[in-house]
């Protein structure tokens, strides 16, 4: 499970190369292919080339439909301003064909593996941009009424797994813009048997090249700092 690539082609390539070493049956992406970094078309093209099942993220929705806002819930006005800069830059960059691909992504998906029903969303089953942070009130509410065996989401950029009774909440982290305090990108593998087993993997890559590309394209310096530090 991968998520929140945010136009970081080097992060995505590193994660997919690492996944190839594992004995996986299927790769699913929980959205936000675009935004923030400078390679949106390259990321979309690679996802399409690899036929990776992908859920629509809030940035995919905003870019695909050329919206005025990205759907990010930032309390700091400066962060909202930066998100708008990112959105406008990405809308200008992405081809019409790739915008159509983003518009056609599903908002949710339920797949059955080994008798387990797993739901995939970007934010939450309630909203595309809802943060289900670990141990949060929102996560408790969602899982309190959740009807499948596991929920896999993204949006927070921090991978984790937690069991609520017999049901699992799993966050796929970020393969392009991690918020773990490390620049290494990350993803998760779910092993399915009688019980689910979740493994979190981190992968090093040339984040400095991505940070420099952000600066060279005159995007906010904070974007480059976030890539270098794994914060933001």
Automatic annotation (TrEMBL):
Domain named Calcineurin-like phosphoesterase: residues: 2-192
Coiled-coil stretches noted in the UniProt entry, renumbered to this chain: none
Gene3D superfamilies in the cross-refs: 3.60.21.10
Pfam (any one): Metallophos_2
Superkingdom assignment: Bacteria
GO MF term list: phosphatase activity
Gene Ontology terms: cellular component: cytoplasm
Similarity section: Belongs to the metallophosphoesterase superfamily. YfcE family.
Protein name (record): Phosphodiesterase
């Amino acid at each position: 499970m991968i998520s929140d690539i945010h136009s970081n082609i080097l992060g995505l390539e590193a994660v997919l190369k690492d996944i190839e070493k594992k004995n996986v049956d299927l790769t699913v992406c929980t959205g936000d292919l675009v935004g923030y970094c400078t390679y949106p078309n390259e990321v979309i093209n690679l996802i399409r080339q690899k036929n990776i099942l992908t859920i629509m993220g809030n940035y995919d929705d905003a870019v695909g439909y050329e919206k005025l806002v990205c759907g990010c819930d930032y309390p700091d006005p400066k962060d909202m301003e930066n998100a708008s800069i990112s959105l406008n830059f990405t809308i200008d960059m992405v081809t019409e064909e790739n915008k159509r691909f983003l518009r056609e992504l599903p908002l949710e998906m339920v797949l059955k593996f080994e008798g387990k029903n797993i739901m995939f969303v970007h934010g939450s089953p309630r909203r595309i941009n809802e943060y289900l942070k670990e141990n949060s009130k929102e996560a408790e509410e969602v899982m309190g009424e959740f009807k499948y065996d596991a929920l896999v989401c993204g949006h927070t950029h921090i991978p984790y797994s937690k069991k609520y009774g017999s049901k699992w909440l799993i966050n796929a982290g970020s393969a392009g813009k991690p918020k773990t305090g490390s620049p290494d990108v990350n993803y998760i593998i779910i092993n399915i048997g009688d019980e689910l087993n979740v493994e979190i993997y981190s992968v090093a890559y040339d984040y400095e090249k991505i940070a420099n590309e952000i600066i060279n394209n005159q995007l906010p310096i904070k974007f480059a700092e976030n890539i270098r530090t794994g914060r933001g």
